[in-house]
Amino acid sequence: MLERLNFIILLVSLAATWIFLWAASHSTWWLALVAAWLFSLVNMLPFSLLHEAVHGVGSPSKRRNRLLGLVSGMAFGTSMSMQAVAHLGHHKRNRTDAEMYDYYLPSESKALRNFWLYAGNLSGLYWFCIPASNLFYLVAPWAYCSRLFVDRIAPALGFGPYVKEMVELPVTTVWSEIALVVIYQAGLWWLLDLSWQGWLLCYWLFALHWSALQYVDHAWSARDIVNGAWNLKVSAPARWLALNYHYHLAHHQHPNEPWTKLPALVDPNAAQPTFWRIYFSLWKGVRPAPPMGAPADPSLLATAQKPG
């Protein structure tokens, strides 16, 4: 039943994103802006289904789970295999020194960390790095897998541990998955007669949405690999359009449970910070890192809302 629902959601969301992409390319500026805004919300559905597939809970069939992930990845803009390595690596490194964007270590430049926070998480560059790295792999997999890129360039960009694991994947598998993404996106450009302005507007607004959410659901939380996340307070429609992705603490505590079960796994007595409170707090910049094991920022808990 859940598998069928996931595929229905995928097909409906893809059709909706095609409409919004077309409208953004063939409408007046204000209608294009509305279409791009709607695209930024609805395109979270394919990403959330990709997330389900990465955890192996999109379908009980490994073959159909992979199909769900491959098609969702084409809409999101990445290889399913690379996304799986990146996301499962996130679950291993969450809130450790290797993965923090809200704090900086004594050995790190505060200015550089702020650049990555503002440009990456808050201005959308984080998402753009994903298709850009995929294209780099597609054009020159030998360069992507080179020691220079793995040991020098990727760590300087903040992706060192992830790239080190990605280059262990079979090159043919990753290359073919990226090729599918390119064929899908190029096919949309041809069939829908998209303009680069309309496409960029849609994906930039999506990038703003997606890139911010990736760290709003972690910022200032406990420095704990499992419990370093939030169950965010958002409107019901926003949560539905992300398949309960905002219940991120429940997901980290129960990573093998599907999206439909997350609401029941949220602690009814725990407070939930709002998305916007944490989002705006990030614009104040990074802070010195507390030690591993430090609790969540108490000021956020004090002003958080109870579920309901």
Report a brief summary of the structure.
The chain is an all-alpha fold and 308 residues long. The chain has helices spanning 2-26, 29-42, 44-54, 62-76, 80-93, 110-122, 125-139, 141-144, 147-157, 160-166, 171-192, 196-216, 236-240, 248-253, 262-265, 275-282, 298-302; strands at residues 103-104, 287-288.
Helix content: 55-70%
Radius of gyration: 19 Å
Overall, the morphology is globular
Beta-strand content bin? under 5%
Low-pLDDT parts are none
The span between the termini is: 27 Å
Structural class: mainly alpha
Q: Main beta sheet, described?
A: 2 strands, parallel
Element-by-element helix/strand order: HHHHHEHHHHHHHHHHHEH
**Total beta strand runs:** 2
| Whole-number mean pLDDT | 95
The order of strands across the largest sheet is 1-2
| Alpha plus pi helix count | 17
Topology:
Blueprint lengths: L1 H25 L2 H14 L1 H11 L7 H15 L3 H14 L9 E2 L5 H13 L2 H15 L1 H4 L2 H11 L2 H7 L4 H22 L3 H21 L19 H5 L7 H6 L8 H4 L9 H8 L4 E2 L9 H5 L6
Parallel strand pairs: 1-2
Commentary on this structure:
By secondary structure, the protein is mainly alpha-helical. Helix content is 65%, strand content 1%. It is built from 17 helices and 2 strands. The chain has helices at 2-26, 29-42, 44-54, 62-76, 80-93, 110-122, 125-139, 141-144, 147-157, 160-166, 171-192, 196-216, 236-240, 248-253, 262-265, 275-282, 298-302; strands at residues 103-104, 287-288. A two-stranded parallel ribbon has the order 1-2. The chain is globular and about 50 Å long. The model has no long low-confidence stretch (mean pLDDT 95).
